[in-house]
Amino acid sequence: MPNVNKAASAVSRGVCWVAAAGLALMMFLTCLDVVLRYFGYPVKGAYDVVALSGAFVIALPIAYTQMQKGHIGIDFIISRFKKGPRRVIDSINCLLNVGVYAVLAWQCTVYGKKLFSVGRVSESIQIPLFPFPYVVAVGCGLMGIILLIEFINLVTQVGEE
Fold first, then answer.
1. DSSP one-letter code for 129
2. Structurally, how many domains does the chain consist of?
């Protein structure tokens, strides 16, 4: 299991760097557009590129954030339980979330296929839209895998105690 954890960590960290590049692109393009717009030369399609880069920036770091325990959790009731019941609730929560993220990844893939088949493009510079739901599907799929690994870790820890 340690090899799986290392591989998942490496992949999630890698896609997080892709998201960071997307964020850098968004910042650079927005600043460039603001400056050039002041001189009367706005960047054509800046809005489209910034909006579509949001798919990278939002979806890809989700799994890495989960691995770092960076998501907000509301556990003021569960924290009062003993370790055993708390682990059972965490296991159920992980398993339910695996299902949710699997459905999200699947539906994003279906939507990407639909956008591809109809040839949908962005408004101003005609960027094909179909790759972006696939990016979200990758982020959701990675999140589901990380949650599945956490579930397996929770279940195997119960057996060790």
1. S
2. 1
What distances in angstroms separate CA 100 from CA 13, 16, 25, 37, one per listed residue?
22, 21, 30, 43
3-state class of 128 per DSSP?
strand
Domain that holds residue 114: 2-160
Of 24, 13, 32, 22, the closest CA to residue 55 belongs to 22
What is the pTM for the complete model shown?
Answer: 0.88
Local structure of 121: helix, strand or coil: strand
Residue 13, H or E segment: helix 2-38
The token duo for 45 is: 């399609």
Distance separating alpha carbons of residues 14 and 3, to the nearest angstrom: 16
* pLDDT in 10s for each residue of the chain, 161 residues: 678 888 988 999 999 999 999 999 999 999 999 999 999 999 999 999 999 999 999 999 999 999 888 887 777 788 888 888 888 888 999 999 999 999 999 999 999 999 999 999 998 999 999 999 999 999 999 999 999 999 999 888 765 55
In the chain, the N- to C-terminal Cα span, in Å, equals 18
